[in-house]
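Subgroup meeting minutes
Present: P.N., E.W., G.H.
Scribe: E.W.

1. P.N. recapped why we're keeping a running log of single-chain structure predictions: easier to compare across weeks, and new members can see raw inputs and outputs side by side.
2. G.H. added today's entry (176 aa).
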Amino acid sequence: GRYGTSHDFLVDFHRERTAVLVAASPDVLAIETIPDLDEALALVDVLADVDVPAWMSFSCESDSRTCAGQPIEAAAELVAALFGAIGINCTKPEFISGLIHRIRSVAPELPIVVYPNAGRVWDGDASVWLGEGTDLLARTAAAQWVDEGATLIGGCCGLGPAAITEIAQITRQELL
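Output recorded in log:
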């Protein structure tokens, strides 16, 4: 998440891609898997003139920090002022509750989107997932996240259709 590039480089990089997406007239933009506040700040600049609702989701290394090691509270404060929601994605499921609590501490009204991965770590050099993981979330996880304040729940890398079906069943029961 620390690319060693300038703010202007990141703005230029994201401006081109964002223009293509916005030209397709989406209903909402999911700006996702952001590991670093420097990149988030560049995206804020890019999206300042975009008239499409968006959320920004962060990938996190723990229950308190982005993958670049910054406090999730700083990310929530940035996002709360500019976006319709904050998300956490491509993050181990066991970190989600702590992240929700920390986000709620600085942005109590901000909708929270969570879509964790299966708990493995990506090795980019070898192009493989490492570590133990699961194809399904713990049955209590989605219900707990709703109770803690998550607004939208899904799955990321390694969580397939069966996991999404189970999340939908659990959250429907939770919302009844």
